[in-house]
Amino acid sequence: MDSDITDTVTAPRGGEGDVDAGAYEVLRRRLSAQAGELVRRAEALNARRTEEFGSTGLRLLASEQVRTERASVPRDLVAVGGQLLLGFERGPGARGETEVEDVLLVRNSAPEDDAPGTDPGQAGTLLDDDGFRREFSSLHRYFRDARLLRLRRVDGRLLAVFRTGENAEDIRVLRWALGPDGSPGAFLDAQGERDHVFPPSHDFDWTVAGRDAHVPGRHPHIAIGKGGGLFVDTLGGTLTVKVTDDTESPDGIYEEPVDEPLQSLADADVAYAEVGPLVLLRVRPYKEDAWRYLVFNSLLG
């Protein structure tokens, strides 16, 4: 009797397993078929694109190892005409005067012109310039810890950016002129800091909320924007955002603590930007290093 009951109970389980396995196989075959169809369509589309626009294809022409006289750390690489300019940082424990060859090296980019493992030398290259070598020596004489940060091509110039101190602003930039075809030209000077700039990270400008935006009262705040529909303060130990011009109450729609509870309205740095219906806030409370960023959607209120 017990045996019959056991058989009755276990049989459906085995059947369910078979059903699950069968369903899995069906799904796997369908997904495989759809994946194959997707690959076929992608290949057909790529063939049409190649037929219409042509294709040069990508292939590895050559590879080689670049050897330096001393242990070095690669920093950057830039193509200049038919050559490659490689930049290095001297390895830890390096001693003695820093030579040009310890930091910069020119290699031919065409494999047929430069056999692997050979050094074409620096003669006749952009590094073989008396003015450049004089500025390079002066840089490392006055800044013993100077090191290469990066190599850049900007607006017809080649820049070699060196860090000269602990701060990000402590840099010295050597620069060369480049021809219309990108070929190296004459060395210019060591005053390329004004060329070493980057495009803005965003397409809007911050507007500083000055003292003219301060609204006095029992609980003063700073009016944000032209419409005056947003207010902010960092008083009483909190960063508070309000949507009503009410200086009788400290309450707002948003609050977060600040590090220094004892500060005046003018102690905080506040800036804003209006982008469509959005109001972007940038606030740095008193005695804090990091900026705080908030976004207010005027449509949602």
Fold and architecture overview:
- It is a single chain.
- The chain has 301 residues and is α+β, with helices and mostly antiparallel strands.
- It folds into 3 domains: 15-55; 72-194, no CATH class; 207-297, no CATH class.
- It has 3 helices and 16 strands.
- A 5-stranded antiparallel beta sheet has the order 9-10-11-12-13, with no helix packed on it.
- Strand 4 and strand 5 form a beta hairpin.
- It starts with a helix and ends with a strand.
- The relative contact order is 0.07.
Give short descriptive properties of this protein.
single chain; 301 residues; alpha+beta; 3 domains; five-stranded antiparallel sheet; four-stranded antiparallel sheet; 3 helices; 23% helix; flat; DNA repair ATPase; DUF3686
In short:
The protein is of the alpha+beta class and 301 residues long.
Number of helices: 3
Q: Would you list the SSEs in sequence order as H and E?
A: HEEHEHEEEEEEEEEEEEE
Sequence stretches where pLDDT stays below 50 over 5 or more residues: 1-12, 113-120
**Share of residues in strands:** 25-35%
Q: What's the number of extended β-strand segments?
A: 16
Q: Mind describing the biggest β-sheet?
A: 5 strands, antiparallel
- Total individual domains: 3
Oligomer category: single chain
Distance between the termini: 73 Å
Spatial arrangement of strands, main beta sheet: 9-10-11-12-13
**Rg over CA atoms:** 33 Å
Helix content estimate: 10-25%
